[in-house]
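Quick one, probably user error.
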């Protein structure tokens, strides 16, 4: 059976009907506000709130007619006959000229002037029809001014309602305007009660408690005062209630850090204290039921819903100036504390340097001690003791001293020397020589350990001073080089908000000519938000191109930390080719290459002493320590000295590693090279020329005091930096080629790819050793590229 086909026109019509049945939440919300503002009345049946609301809504044609009927309904239900008729006629007139008003939707000042004249003239005409008094004319003009002011207030609050789903950050003016609109709407509830419970009071208390809990005492008291003024302006006891509302909001905000329960208790306490002193306990009992209901509703609101209020309060919690002052105070405190720590560590290091080293194995005190011990062991039971040590004391003591001095010079003493000195005077010269040699050996061992301890003490002193200098550098950076710019942070937030990108935290830190932007947000689904939207939005905000630092987006626990830096002039790419000795899995060569702070790129190659696992551990330790310290912005000299001290103290055996460090500034192309016992490295220029970088410094871990030679060069687009280990350089020794063979190979090669160059040099080295590596071989090739904006 053939199914009937629905025409495309009918399908579209059905879809339009189904879409038309969807409820527009924004329209409903605006209509509710219109109804309540239409009901809001102040002294002498004046109701400017609904009139001003409709005049402003004429600039939004989509919601004009629903709001018109709702305001009309509110006016009819709250005003008496003639007053209601006056406002209804005014609404119809405004609706009649609404197309004229909508022309000035971008000039709210003109719209407010139109509202002033319409309201004032309609009031004066109404007074002419009834009884005309000077007081009525004055009231009409005041009502016109109120309408004009309210239109201006609505121009801040209503757009926030229309775009509430995409707005993330709100200005102070918008927050205040929205609070006034809410307070006026509550006034429109008027005398609506359920079971003798005032709905107006319940909502008023609830709003004050919520604002106090989210924004603190300042905004809590401000909201209390605002709601108190607006909701009680037509009562005789208005000033007193303003104070009660404000004090209750203040006390509720003071307890907000404890819990939600404490916030409600604070509000109840504030209300109770002032009400009892001003109105008596009977008045308190009448309102306590409404406060309890408001508190229970507040406690039932989920915390994630309450957090939505935060974005309405952030804009008014403090000025930018106070925030900057706070940051400066924190910087001063941190700088002072770091300076104190620096001075303490520097003093400790200097104290270690003040300890004197022992220059000789035996000083005068030691000589006396050795003579006493030998005399006790050898001479105590000798029948000639009285003659040697009583009658000839000076001669005997000098002879012992000469023996010990001879030991100091030669390290050992034999029987012939003692015999020539003691043969006529000493009966136990064999025992004397044994005792002197024995005790001298003990003192020599003690002397060696003292020397080792002094050397260790110097290393520790050097390390403590390095820590002190690092702390001083951090202090100087915080105090002088690190500056926050809240204007740019706000610009970034606004630009991201325009792209509907929500961020949790953001900071802009400027250091000299460089800046760093840290952004924290929830992970995006496909991981390409940075490239598609975020980088472009941030670039517009800061006025220059930015790029992602390191990996850009580092995801942990559904939190994405994005670090952006100023656009770098150059980019570096590194490729590595390596081969272990005898085909071993473990290589004594270790390397790393990475982008570090301030737009710099690091290339490091380390060769541990020997081969295999031990050499690998030494070089890996060197690389790991250097990588962490440079990433932490510790100076290269301090970093290398620390590694040297660490290797010296790590073991009693000799442990050392070569270190070949190259740091490229990607902002200007400056290259700084530091070599510690490393092989020469090469720079092949784009025009084909080759430059050699070499040094005669010792490896780290050999001597306590090292000499660090820094060589500075400049690289440009197309330049290639070649870093190799000694296994590559030494490949030409057996062929009597020396070290120059690699220079020739680099000069003649015409390959452009970093991967191809690394493999080509490694293959050439293997050819020279007949395919059998005599040492670990590593080649690192880094090429410089110019970024295009």
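Nope, works fine. Designed sequence:
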């Amino acid at each position: 059976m053939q199914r009937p086909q629905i025409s495309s026109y009918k399908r579209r019509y059905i879809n339009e009907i189904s879409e038309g049945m969807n409820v527009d939440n924004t329209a409903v919300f605006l209509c509710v506000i219109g109804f309540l503002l239409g009901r809001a009345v102040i002294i002498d049946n004046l109701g400017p709130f609904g009139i001003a609301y409709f005049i402003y809504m004429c600039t939004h044609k989509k919601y004009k007619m629903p709001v018109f009927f709702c305001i009309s309904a509110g006016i009819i239900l709250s005003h008496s006959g003639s007053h209601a008729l006056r406002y209804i006629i005014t609404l119809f007139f405004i609706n009649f000229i609404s197309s004229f008003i909508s022309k000035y939707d971008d000039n709210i000042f003109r719209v407010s002037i139109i509202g002033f004249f319409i309201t004032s003239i309609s009031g004066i005409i109404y007074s002419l029809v009834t009884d005309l008094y000077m007081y009525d004319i004055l009231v009409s003009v005041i009502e016109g001014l109120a309408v004009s002011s309210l239109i201006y207030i609505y121009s801040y609050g209503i757009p926030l309602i229309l775009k509430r789903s995409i707005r993330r950050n709100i200005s102070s003016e918008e927050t205040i305007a929205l609070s006034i609109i809410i307070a006026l709407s509550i006034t429109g509830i008027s005398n609506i009660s359920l079971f003798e419970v005032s709905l107006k009071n319940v909502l008023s208390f609830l709003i004050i408690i919520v604002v106090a809990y989210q924004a603190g005492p300042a905004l809590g008291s401000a909201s209390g005062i605002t709601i108190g003024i607006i909701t009680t302006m037509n009562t005789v006891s208005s000033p007193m209630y303003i104070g009660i509302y404000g004090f209750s909001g203040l006390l509720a905000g003071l307890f907000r850090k404890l819990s939600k329960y404490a916030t409600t208790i604070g509000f109840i306490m504030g209300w109770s204290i002032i009400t009892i002193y001003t109105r008596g306990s009977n008045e308190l009992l009448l309102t306590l039921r409404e406060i309890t209901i408001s508190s229970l509703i507040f406690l039932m609101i989920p915390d994630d819903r309450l957090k939505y209020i935060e974005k309405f309060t952030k804009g008014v919690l403090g000025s930018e100036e106070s925030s900057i002052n706070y940051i400066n105070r924190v910087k001063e405190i941190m700088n002072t504390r770091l300076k104190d720590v620096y001075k303490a560590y520097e003093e400790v290091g200097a104290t270690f340097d003040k300890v004197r080293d022992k220059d000789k194995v035996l000083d005068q005190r030691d000589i006396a001690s050795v003579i006493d011990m030998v005399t006790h062991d050898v001479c105590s039971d000798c029948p000639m003791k009285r003659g040697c040590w009583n009658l000839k004391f000076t001669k005997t003591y000098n002879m012992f001293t000469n023996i010990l001095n001879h030991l100091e010079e030669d390290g050992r003493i034999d029987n012939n020397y003692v015999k020539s000195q003691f043969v006529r005077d000493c009966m136990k010269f064999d025992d004397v020589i044994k005792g002197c040699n024995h005790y001298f050996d003990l003192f020599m061992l003690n002397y060696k350990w003292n020397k080792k301890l002094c050397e260790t003490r110097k290393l520790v002193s050097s390390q403590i001073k390095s820590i002190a200098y690092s702390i001083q550098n951090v202090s100087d950076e915080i105090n002088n080089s690190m500056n926050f710019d809240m204007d740019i942070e706000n610009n970034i937030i606004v630009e991201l908000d325009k792209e509907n990108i929500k961020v949790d935290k953001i900071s802009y830190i400027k250091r000299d000519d460089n800046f760093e932007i840290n952004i924290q947000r929830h992970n995006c689904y496909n991981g390409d938000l940075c490239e598609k939207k975020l980088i472009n939005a941030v670039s517009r905000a800061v006025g220059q191109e930015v790029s992602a630092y390191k990996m850009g987006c580092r995801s942990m626990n559904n939190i994405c930390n994005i670090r952006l830096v100023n656009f770098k002039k150059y980019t570096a790419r590194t490729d590595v080719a390596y081969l272990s000795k005898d085909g071993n899995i473990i290589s004594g060569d270790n390397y790393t290459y990475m982008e570090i702070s301030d737009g710099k790129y690091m290339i490091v190659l380390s060769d541990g002493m020997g081969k295999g696992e031990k050499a690998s551990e030494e070089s890996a330790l060197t690389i790991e320590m250097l990588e962490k310290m440079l990433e932490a912005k510790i100076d290269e000299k301090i970093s290398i000295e620390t590694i040297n001290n660490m290797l010296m103290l790590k073991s009693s055996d000799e442990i050392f590693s070569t270190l070949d460090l190259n740091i490229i500034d990607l902002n200007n192309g400056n290259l700084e090279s530091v070599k510690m016992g490393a092989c020469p490295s090469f720079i092949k220029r784009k025009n084909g020329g080759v430059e050699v970088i070499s040094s005669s410094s010792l490896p780290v871990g050999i001597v306590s005091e090292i000499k660090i030679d820094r060589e500075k060069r400049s690289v440009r687009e197309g330049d290639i930096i070649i870093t190799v280990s000694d296994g590559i350089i030494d490949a030409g020794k057996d062929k009597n080629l020396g070290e120059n063979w690699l220079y020739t190979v680099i000069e003649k090669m015409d390959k452009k790819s970093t991967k191809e160059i690394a493999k080509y040099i490694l293959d050439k080295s293997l050819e020279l050793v007949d395919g059998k590596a005599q040492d670990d071989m590593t080649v690192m090739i880094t090429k410089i590229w110019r970024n295009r904006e």
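The two ends are 65 Å apart (CA to CA).
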